[in-house]
Specification:
Blueprint (H helix, E strand, L loop, with lengths): L20 E12 L2 E2 L2 E14 L2 E2 L3 E9 L34 E5 L4 E4 L8 E4 L5 E2 L5 E3 L4 E16 L9 E8 L2 E9 L6 E12 L4 E9 L8 E5 L10 E9 L46
Parallel strand pairs: 1-3, 2-4, 3-5
Antiparallel strand pairs: 6-8, 6-17, 7-16, 9-10, 10-15, 11-14, 11-16, 11-17, 12-13, 12-15
């Protein structure tokens, strides 16, 4: 042992510990060519800077809380984990349950009279964990991140009421999706001749930039292609089944030059721990007859 100074400094040429237990250990900096131990146990282990060519523990590392600025390991097994940023070259997962906050579902709580050609005004938010939906003055979704989004726009209408006389020819439903007030997706679906209602679905994968605003419209075109002036009743009951709705979910981020690429490779451990642990040499007891700290290890 080279030196043992105050509580703020521990300097050792060699440290051999048969067992160590502590409620809290905090180390400002650890620099070592090789750290080898049978087991390390701590309730709370906090290391601000850890520099070691080899950290090898054949038994176990147990801690209620482990905090480190950087962690490198050839093998890592954990029941739970929360990581702000993760780069993985090769990932194999037996049971993956993806979750994204970037999604939303809106519909009508009751049947609602709608003016043809105006922006949709859904009044019921079913799901919006990231608070990206606005209901006023009309329904809109603001993209929280640049990427690919899957959208479904479904409109069930009944009681078509044209204000400029009967519709000439077969009416055609026209569902439209706008991004920043620009039409980007639409679909056409003719009415059945014996029904005064219509059901139309528009589903599409679309690219959005962060901050883009998505809105919707519904039109009816007459047989001459001219939009019908009037109103319809849009079916709504606060649930998805058989009712009008708008759904959107984030599928994938856009690639950029500032992200991606290969992960930093972990260093390969080349000096394995010896299967035979050299026993610690007991120190001279400070008080005659006092037990030695390494005599037993009862955790």
């Amino acid at each position: 042992m080279a030196s043992l100074c105050s509580s703020n400094c521990l300097s050792l040429d060699c440290l051999c510990v048969k067992c160590m237990k502590t409620d809290c250990g905090k180390i400002q900096q650890v620099i070592s060519d090789n750290i080898c131990a049978q087991s390390v146990w701590a309730k709370n282990l906090n290391v601000e800077n850890e520099v070691a060519n080899n950290l090898c523990v054949p038994g176990a590392i147990q801690a209620g809380s482990v905090s480190a600025n950087m962690l490198g390991a050839n093998s890592l097994c954990a029941k739970e984990g929360t990581i702000n940023k993760l780069c993985v070259d090769d990932l194999t997962v037996s049971n993956l349950q993806p979750f994204t906050k970037f999604r939303a579902t809106v519909n009508y709580s009751v049947d609602t009279t709608y003016t043809l050609g105006s922006f949709l005004n859904f009044n019921n938010i079913v799901d919006d964990p990231n608070n990206n939906v606005s209901l006023s003055p009309n329904t809109s979704y603001t993209a929280p991140s640049a990427g690919y989004y899957m959208m479904t726009f479904k409109v069930n209408v009944t009681n078509v009421q044209p204000t400029n006389g009967p519709i000439l020819g077969t009416p055609v439903a026209n569902a439209e999706i706008y991004v920043n007030a620009i039409l980007v997706r639409e679909s056409f679906s003719p009415f059945l001749s014996f029904l005064n209602d219509q059901r139309v679905i528009l589903s599409s994968l679309i690219t959005l930039q962060k901050g883009d605003v998505v809105t919707m419209k519904y039109d009816i075109l007459g047989g001459n292609g001219v939009p019908v002036v009037g109103t319809v009743d849009i079916v709504g009951a606060g649930i998805e089944d058989g009712n009008s709705l708008f759904k959107i979910i984030f599928m994938s981020a856009l690639s950029s030059s500032s992200s991606g690429g290969a992960c930093i490779q972990c260093p390969v451990v080349t000096v394995p721990c010896s299967p035979v642990v050299t026993p610690c040499q007991p120190l001279v007891p400070p008080v005659p007859g006092a037990p030695m700290p390494c005599d037993s290890c009862q955790f």
